[in-house]
Design the sequence.
């Protein structure tokens, strides 16, 4: 009995130690990722995102999957892909809702609302913020409640709802009194001053900016907040008639922002200085700072300052140059308007589809189960006699086709297992031996030979990754395709996917899904490596017991009569034929390439 108790204790202790170890690793990954996001280090953030998914794959902890989607969203925010960021925030939020984690739900909704505010979807941001409060206030998450009220104040200000904005800022300040956090306090004070500044109540705005600047040791401890408040104070003071120290203050702000690499705000300071010089009729200096503002705004995608700089340069120049700036302003303004409208529609669509899915799932669980049961029983009773008459005729034909189809699927699965085994051998054995030999060459000072061997080792490792299979057990097919496309998507290589969300991929055989995934991956890689394409369209569809994949690019194309298929296309041809499918390739020089794949979905 004592031995059993001791064994049970040891097992529990080991399990607790494993959980603690995973928690520590998770904390380190999350901290590294957040630091990378703040410093805008995309490579480190991607690495943290990848490690999060590996940890989730190992532990099957759904909170890690929610964090993985959150970090995917952060990756897309740094590359200004707001629609993808919104999508992954919603995936993260959906998992947190399933886990009933009110804190994470509230935090994701706050992130979503800030994203909506940044693309000027102010009504959407207001709705998301209020929804966030429903989750945050019951658990007294004051840090995020304060941020939500501050965001609501900014949104209300943009909607020209001055009294509402003041009410929200005051609520944020009352919460800050309990928390006593300097940075949050300075943000709220500055935003309140900006509210009065926007309504041309500059004397009132000056009171708030001075209140912020009077904070204890702000210049030493919070230099960026000091610069923000000083610039806004200088602007309001100048508009109100106070011209002393204007340039001195603006130049001090400029020095602080350059020192701390706050590139996004540099355009604002240059705009203010340019306007000052323009008022003083010092046009050359005004043009210099307007150009600096334009350059900084373009680099940081600060669209508001970008437009202001173009408009200012149009006024400061003459002739064709002025017309060029004005035309660029009009084109950019129209483009931004279309982009904002598209993003609003995209955000609304993602939100609608997610909420619709939640409602449908809830309805099916609570109401539809019995109704479906009754309909199924009725249908079975009414059709059983008919099925009995024709079953003897169809049985052998159907069975023969099914066995042939299953044999093909098993054959494909065996080949996948062989590929996985080869990939494992390449990675674990061949690459390992190459690493050992590489180390010996380096120790023997045979550096040129060691360098060449390193290239061989990298090629073997890349080949093992290409041969390795992909699993749809944990991450659904749709998400796998989205992740694949997002990893290759760049402003210079636009990938559009159609038909992915219209079908239930859960019922499609995993060998077919694997073939579709590998076909998409091979086509994208060929486009980037050989075709020099800038656009690619991927279209999925399921019709009449067949699955279709159509891929079109606008690359350089090739002559089918003289061009031989590479090993990638040959492998693709073999995979398609294994599943009794058809592969056709249409291409002309300078007219792109079109790939059509048709696979039977069942016997």
Sequence:
């Amino acid at each position: 009995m004592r031995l059993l108790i001791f064994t049970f204790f040891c097992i529990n202790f080991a399990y607790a130690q494993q959980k603690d170890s995973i928690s520590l690793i998770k904390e380190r990954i999350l901290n590294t990722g957040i630091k990378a996001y703040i410093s805008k280090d995309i490579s480190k953030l991607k690495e943290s995102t990848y490690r999060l998914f590996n940890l989730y794959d190992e532990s099957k902890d759904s909170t890690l999957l929610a964090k993985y989607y959150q970090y995917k969203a952060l990756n897309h925010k740094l590359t200004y892909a707001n629609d993808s960021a919104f999508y992954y925030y919603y995936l993260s939020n959906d998992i947190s809702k399933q886990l009933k984690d009110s804190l994470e739900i509230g935090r994701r909704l706050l992130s979503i609302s800030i994203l909506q505010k940044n693309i000027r979807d102010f009504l959407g941001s207001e709705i998301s913020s209020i929804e966030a409060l429903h989750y945050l206030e019951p658990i007294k998450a004051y840090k995020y409640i304060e941020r939500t009220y501050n965001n609501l104040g900014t949104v209300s200000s943009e909607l020209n709802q001055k009294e509402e904005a003041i009410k929200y800022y005051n609520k944020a300040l009352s919460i800050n009194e309990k928390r006593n956090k300097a940075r949050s306090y300075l943000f709220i004070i500055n935003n309140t001053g900006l509210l009065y500044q926007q309504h041309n109540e500059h004397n009132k705005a000056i009171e708030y900016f001075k209140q912020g600047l009077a904070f204890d040791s702000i210049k030493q401890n919070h230099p960026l907040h000091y610069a923000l408040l000083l610039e806004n104070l200088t602007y309001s003071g100048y508009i109100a008639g106070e011209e002393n120290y204007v340039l001195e203050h603006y130049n001090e702000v400029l020095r602080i922002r350059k020192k701390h690499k706050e590139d996004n705000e540099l355009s604002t300071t240059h705009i203010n200085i340019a306007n000052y010089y323009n008022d003083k009729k010092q046009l050359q200096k005004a043009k210099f700072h307007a150009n600096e503002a334009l350059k900084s705004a373009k680099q940081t995608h600060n669209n508001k300052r970008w437009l202001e700089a173009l408009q200012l340069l149009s006024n400061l120049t003459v002739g064709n140059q002025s017309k060029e700036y004005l035309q660029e302003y009009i084109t950019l303004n129209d483009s931004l308007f279309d982009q904002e409208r598209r993003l609003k529609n995209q955000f609304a669509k993602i939100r609608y589809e997610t909420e619709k899915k939640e409602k449908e799932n809830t309805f099916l669980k609570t109401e539809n189960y019995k109704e479906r049961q009754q309909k199924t029983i009725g249908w079975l009773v009414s059709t059983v006699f008919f099925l009995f008459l024709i079953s003897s005729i169809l049985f052998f034909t159907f069975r023969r086709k099914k066995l042939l189809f299953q044999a093909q699927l098993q054959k494909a699965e065996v080949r996948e297992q062989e590929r996985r085994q080869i990939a494992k051998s390449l990675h674990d054995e061949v690459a390992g031996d190459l690493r050992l030999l590489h180390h010996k060459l380096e120790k023997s000072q045979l550096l040129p030979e060691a360098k060449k061997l390193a290239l061989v080792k990298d090629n073997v490792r890349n080949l093992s990754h290409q041969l390795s299979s992909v699993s749809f057990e944990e991450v659904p097919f749709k998400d796998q395709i989205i992740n694949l496309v997002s990893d290759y998507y760049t402003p210079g290589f636009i990938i559009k996917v159609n038909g992915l969300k219209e079908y239930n991929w859960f019922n499609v055989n995993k060998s077919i899904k694997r073939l579709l995934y590998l076909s998409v991956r091979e086509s994208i890689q060929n486009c980037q490596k050989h075709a020099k394409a800038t656009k690619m369209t991927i279209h999925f569809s399921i019709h009449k017991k067949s699955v279709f994949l159509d891929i079109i690019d606008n690359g350089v194309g090739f002559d089918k009569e003289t061009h031989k298929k590479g090993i990638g296309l040959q492998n693709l041809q073999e995979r398609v034929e294994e599943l009794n499918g058809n592969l056709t390739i249409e291409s002309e020089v300078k007219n792109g390439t079109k790939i059509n794949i048709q696979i039977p979905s069942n016997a």
